[in-house]
Specification:
By secondary structure, the chain is of the alpha/beta class.
Amino acid sequence: MTKAVFAGSFDPPTYGHLNVIERASKLFDKLDIVIAVNPDKNYMFDSQERVDMISKMTEGLKNISIHTWNGLIVDYCKNNEVDVLVRGIRNANDFAYEFDLSLMNKSLGNVETLMLPTEQKYVIVRSSSIKELAKFGGDITGMVPEFIAEKVKNFFK
């Protein structure tokens, strides 16, 4: 069985995240979606809300499971016997950042990194940009599912 992890903060989850999840789920027998829980970060949504949103977004995918984790992703991989980490990249800056992380993850946990370039329509989709756009009343419905757009809008009311 080939198993992989797609990790991130998913705050909020976006269509870009969903695109990577759908594509990676076709490449692996099992895909663990791991939601980062860092007590030093201020998230818009708590970990359970993020789990619920991703669960709803991925209802039709049978080979995925959703987890939270508050440590190094390589430790999650070791504890769950996963050898592949999937990362979505949008541009050369993402590639440079993820390339450096891939070297560190390989040395710390012998985890291989598979980088999936985004589809062109998701190049500008970024959780931080979505939050800023929504904060000022911008339309984010093309970047996240409607139910998430409502949650983000309500956060800023």
